[in-house]
Amino acid sequence: MREQWAETLVGLVVVALAAVFLVYSLTVGGVDRKAGQYEVTAKFGEVGALTPGAVVSVAGVKIGTVSTITLDPKTYLAVTKLSLDEDVKLPSDSTAKVTSDSLLGGAHIVIAPGGAMDDLKPGGEIENTQGSVDLFGLIGQVIRPQPSVEGNAAAPAPAATTPSSGVGAAAGDPAALPDF
Questions:
Q1: Helix spans in the chain (H)
Q2: Is the distance from CB of 63 to CB of 92 less than 8 angstroms?
Q3: Cα–Cα dist 1/6, whole Å
Q4: What's the pLDDT tens digit per position in 34-65?
Q5: For a tag on the chain, would you pick the N or C end, based on fewer CB atoms within 10 A?
Q6: What is the pLDDT of residues 67-103, one digit of tens each?
């Protein structure tokens, strides 16, 4: 009888932990979007490790999250929907950039406000974007530089020399021969 109570208690603990992880994953994933937010769109050529739920910030302050990331089949750009706090009004010419915390850190979006007088409207699009940089690709290029293609570079032309006047030079004297 004592073993059955222990097994039941362990089962309840496992179910409770599963519920806690479910609530946490839904919260981080942005499923519980606040009512005080509006969505804007930004298109990137490369999003790297950006995922839904990633932070959107201005000057290091979180102002929203990434809702969804999809691929535009016509332009092959990554279309991101950003849920921003409604009390943050961004100028319409703001710039969005995908950055990472470190080499191993997750990606997030940093917005640099522009100087336009009109604000970005709900459902609008951030036109100025900069995708993520492939750090490992850059490091690989530095470590293994690409060999130059031979035949494309022209050989340097020999320096022009004036023919020797022949005075005091013997016919076989190497000093009298022009340099090529």
A1: 2-28, 135-143
A2: no
A3: 9
A4: 567 889 999 998 888 888 988 999 998 999 99
A5: N
A6: 999 999 999 999 999 999 988 899 989 999 998 877 6
Structure-token pair, residue 89: 């009004």
Taking alpha carbons only, the member of 138, 130, 137 closest to residue 45 is 130
For the whole prediction, is pTM greater than 0.70? no
CA–CA distance, 44 with 93 (Å, rounded to integer): 16
- Between CA 98 and CA 105, with CA 103 as vertex, the angle to 5 degrees is 65
Strands 128-130, 95-100: pairing is parallel
Nearest to 83 by CA among 31, 135, 134: 31
Read off the tokens for 142: 């530095």
What are φ and ψ of residue 40, in 5° steps? -130, 165
- Hey, how many other C-beta atoms are within 10 angstroms of the C-beta on 109? 26
Specify the 3-state DSSP secondary structure of 11. Answer: helix
Report the distance separating Cα 148 and Cα 150, nearest Å.
6
Q: What is the separation of C-alpha 147 from the centre of its chain, rounded to a whole number of angstroms?
A: 27
- Contact assessment for residue 64 and residue 38, using Cβ atoms and an 8 Å cutoff: no
DSSP-assigned states of every residue in 161-176: -PPP--TT--TT-GGG
